[in-house]
Amino acid sequence: MNTKYMQKDHNRSEGFIRDYPLYSYDEISSTNTVAKELSESGAEKGIVTALTQSAGRGRRERVWDSPEGGLWFSLFETVPENDIRKLSFFMNFGIILAAINTMKQYLDSDTLKVKWPNDIYASGKKLGGALLETFDGPAGKTVVTGVGLNTWNGSKENWTSLLDLGIEKVPNSEILEKFIENLNILREKLYDSPEELMAGWEKYDLFSGKTVKVKSSQGNFAGTVKGYSSRGALIISASSGGIRTIETGEVENVR
Ligand code: BTN
């Protein structure tokens, strides 16, 4: 048990989900930040949840609004340096597929989509997203995967939530347990099969065959989405000609 947090945060309770130690807080800055700190003080893996985050973070240094009602959590795991690529890949794409498989229990699966690199959409609006961070830990590399799912929090323009979609309320703890169960199933089946994982992911792709605008280190350009590589890169047929493979970036729909 990590006494540092027991002394500092009276709002923490502990438990387990499957074989992950669970650290649940009322309010913290960010579950990703606390997951990093826990791993730095020796915890090898775990799940951190918070009812609210005072400094929730999204990708590209965006602020992630985290009011009470939503499901805000981070999974962390320390692995030897050699395994980091595989784990990061799985955590990026497996985590969003696990979110899809979990949301399928509440929403019609035809309404659910994935948006590269790691967002989940429902009925054309963002339902959630993931923020992956890696750190050098005392026993190897730590991968922290933060997941934000708009469950019972109100939402904003272009965002939706289970509440907005009229779903009957279930506790976030139940959704989290189902999520971890689904993640474990995917991990057992597809951890060593990146092509299959991407094929599963593509079934829900928001952009397949669509014309999109890409913002990446290769510049900003338009093109048509052709698919994904087995390493999770986006393959675009650029409007100006040629096929481009995008490892990191952002995509917006044009039509
Ligand atoms: C994105 O779509 O930009 C990713 C959002 C990730 C938000 C989650 S909420 C739990 C975890 N803690 C954070 O500060 N961020 C992630």
Low-confidence stretches: 1-8
Order of helices and strands: HEEHEEHEEEEHHEEEEE
Mean pLDDT: 93
Radius of gyration: 18 Å
Bound molecules: biotin
The profile of the biggest β sheet is:
8 strands, mixed
Give the helix proportion (percent range): 25-40%
What is the total tally of β strands?
Answer: 13
Number of helices: 5
Principal-axes geometry comes out as globular
| Helix vs. strand class | alpha+beta
N- to C-terminal separation? 52 Å
Strand order of the largest sheet: 1-2-3-4-8-7-6-5
As a percent range, the share of strand residues is 35-45%
Report on the architecture of this protein.
The chain is an alpha+beta fold and about 260 residues long. The protein has 5 helices and 13 strands. It has an 8-stranded mixed β-sheet, sandwiched between helices. Helix 3 crosses helix 4 and helix 3 packs parallel to helix 5. The N terminus is likely disordered. Bound molecules: biotin. Biotin binds next to helix 2, strand 4, strand 7 and strand 8.
